[in-house]
Specification:
This protein is an all-alpha fold. 89% of the residues lie in helices and 0% in strands. It is built from six helices and no strands. The chain is rod-shaped, with a radius of gyration of 54 Å.
Length: 237
C-alpha cells in the first residue's frame, strides 16, 4: 500500500500522506514513539530506492559515454584509413580514387570536433553524476547509522517510560506517607486509650489501695526488725 501511494503521489507527497494518516489515527510523528521510528524507516527506504535509481541512471550515462567515446575513436581510425587510401591511390597514379578517399577523409574530419565535444560533455556529465552518487551514498550510510541510533534511543525512551510507569503505579513515597499516617494514628489511639483508662479509675479506691500498701510495707519492716532484735526466740542448748 505504501509503495502504491509513493508511486501515485511521489516520495515526498506520499510520506506526507502517510504521516497525515498516522495523525488521523492519533499517532503523530512528533510523539517520538514507534510511529516516528516507522516513518524514519520508511524515509530511509525511500532514500535507498532513490540512490538505487540514481545508480541506475549513472550506469546508463556511463554506457552512453562509452558508446560515444568508442564512436569517436572509430571515426578517428576511419579518418586515418581514408587518408592512407588517398595517399596509396595518389602514389599509384589513381587520381580519382585518391580524390574520393581524400573527400571522405575530409568529411570525417569535419565530423570529429562535434563528436569530440559530445564525448567531453558526456564525460563531464558522467563525472558529475558519479560525484553526486558518491555523496548520496555517503549520506545514505550516515542515515543508516542515524536510523540505528534512532532505534536505540526509542528503545531507551520506552525503557524510561516503563520505569516511570512502574514508579507511578508503585509510589513508594505515597506508601511511606500512608505508613507514617497509620503509625501516628495508632500512637494517638494508644494515648487516648491510656488517658481514658486513667480517667475511668476511681481515685478513692486508688488512695485506699495505696494506704493499705503502705501499712503492709510498714508491718513487713517492723517484723523484720523483730527478727534481728533481742526478742528473737532462742534455740534449746
Amino acid at each position: 500500500m505504501r509503495n502504491f501511494i509513493y508511486w501515485l503521489m511521489g516520495d515526498r507527497a506520499g510520506r506526507t500522506l502517510v504521516g497525515t494518516w498516522n495523525w488521523l489515527w492519533g499517532i503523530p510523528v512528533e510523539s517520538g514513539g514507534k510511529v516516528a521510528v516507522a516513518v524514519a524507516e520508511e524515509s530511509l527506504q525511500a532514500m535507498q530506492d532513490s540512490v538505487q535509481k540514481l545508480a541506475a541512471a549513472v550506469s546508463m550515462q556511463v554506457g552512453a559515454y562509452q558508446r560515444a567515446k568508442q564512436k569517436y575513436q572509430d571515426k578517428v581510425m576511419e579518418f586515418k584509413r581514408f587518408e592512407e587510401q588517398a595517399a596509396l591511390a595518389q602514389r599509384s597514379g589513381q587520381v580519382e580514387a585518391a580524390r574520393l578517399a581524400m573527400t571522405r577523409a575530409i568529411q570525417v574530419e569535419n565530423l570529429l570536433p562535434q563528436l569530440e565535444s559530445q564525448v567531453q560533455q558526456a564525460e563531464k556529465f558522467v563525472e558529475t553524476s558519479k560525484e553526486k552518487l558518491n555523496r548520496e551514498r555517503l549520506k545514505l550510510e550516515q542515515y543508516k547509522t542515524d536510523m540505528q541510533n534512532i532505534k536505540d534511543l526509542a528503545e531507551i525512551n520506552s525503557a524510561l517510560e516503563s520505569i516511570a510507569k512502574v514508579n507511578n503505579e508503585f509510589d513508594i513515597g505515597s506508601a511511606r506517607s500512608s505508613f507514617e499516617t497509620a503509625k501516628e494514628a495508632v500512637k494517638g489511639r494508644h494515648l487516648r486509650s491510656q488517658a481514658l483508662a486513667e480517667l475511668s479509675e476511681n481515685p478513692a479506691e486508688k488512695l485506699t489501695s495505696d494506704l493499705e500498701q503502705l501499712s503492709l510495707d510498714e508491718e513487713v519492716s517492723r517484723r523484720l526488725q523483730r527478727l534481728d532484735g533481742s526478742d528473737q526466740p532462742k534455740l534449746p542448748g
